[in-house]
Design goal:
GO molecular function: rRNA (uridine-2'-O-)-methyltransferase activity
Number of domains: 1
CATH architecture: 3-Layer(aba) Sandwich
CATH superfamily: Vaccinia Virus protein VP39
Shape: globular
Keywords: Methyltransferase, rRNA processing, S-adenosyl-L-methionine, Transferase
Structural class: alpha/beta
Family: Belongs to the class I-like SAM-binding methyltransferase superfamily. RNA methyltransferase RlmE family.
Helix content: 25-40%
CATH class: Alpha Beta
Strand content: 15-25%
Number of helices: 7
Number of strands: 7
Strand order of the largest sheet: 3-2-1-4-5-7-6
CATH topology: Rossmann fold
Largest sheet: 7 strands, mixed
Protein name: rRNA methyltransferase 2, mitochondrial
Organism: Eleusine coracana subsp. coracana
Radius of gyration: 17 Å
Order of helices and strands: HHEHEEHEHHEHEE
Length: about 240
């Protein structure tokens, strides 16, 4: 329930008080407050959306007005390998969910979920492996999930010869690219958020993303449990 420390207890209690299905809603709320990646009328793809807390944090909430009022439009699509019911609290008719394995999801399938099939303005990935306790295994799966989110967002990844991140990207590229579509689902100027378990390969992802996005930063939200090694890479302004 609480992890270690009073801060964890606070976010757990606040989630219950405000009707969020999980404390993780506060992580996205903090990301949004600091980076304002979700704007009124945005089309948002939430990868690994179970149990639905980020779906709740995207739409208008007590903490931040993200999609704006219904007349502003917008769409939130959650995808997870588990069936996820749209939470009744904080969500509205703009939120929908699909049951699919993100690792096998074709870009054309993801694009078909977007408005007019034009893609999304924001792609979020809160995907994380079921922690096995084997550090190297958990780190590798985390990077594979992150690589898949990156590939879905920006399309086929092409590396610069001799770049100091090539080894990192190549390590995960072949196992996480199930379709040959060159085009990603993230619109030009859009933002991407990826969760990683901190490890030596994360800086390589950061260096690659800095060439494709206007701004790249790392954040460990306050609502993160003290025992967790998760960190979020926030990529703004796809070039």
């Amino acid at each position: 329930m609480s992890g270690a420390g009073g801060t964890a207890d606070f976010f757990y209690r606040e989630a219950q008080r405000l009707g969020y299905v999980a404390r993780s809603a506060f992580k996205l709320i903090q990301i949004q407050k600091q980076h304002k990646i979700i704007t009124p009328g945005a089309a948002v793809l939430d990868l690994g959306c179970a149990p639905g807390a980020w779906l709740q944090a995207i739409v208008p909430s007590v903490a931040c007005q993200n999609l704006g009022p219904l007349e502003k439009g917008g769409l939130v699509v959650g995808v997870d390998c588990k069936k996820v019911k749209v939470p009744s609290s904080h969500c509205d008719s703009r939120v929908r969910t699909f049951c699919a394995d993100v690792m096998m999801l074709m870009k054309r399938q993801a694009r078909a979920m977007s408005p007019q099939e034009r893609g999304f303005s924001v792609v979020l990935s809160d995907m994380c492996p079921a922690v096995s306790g084997i550090t190297t295994k958990d780190e590798a799966i985390s990077c594979e999930l992150g690589m898949r989110a990156l590939s879905l967002a920006i399309g086929k990844i092409k590396l610069k010869e001799g770049s100091d991140y090539s080894a990192t990207i190549e390590k995960y590229q072949s196992s996480t690219e199930p379709d040959p579509d060159d085009n990603g689902v993230l619109r030009r100027g859009g933002s991407l958020v990826i969760k990683f378990l901190e490890n030596e390969d994360v800086p390589g992802f950061g260096k690659f993303c800095k060439e494709r996005f206007r701004k790249v930063s790392l954040l460990r939200p306050k609502a993160t449990r003290s025992s967790s090694r998760e960190i979020y890479m926030i990529c703004e302004g796809l070039r």
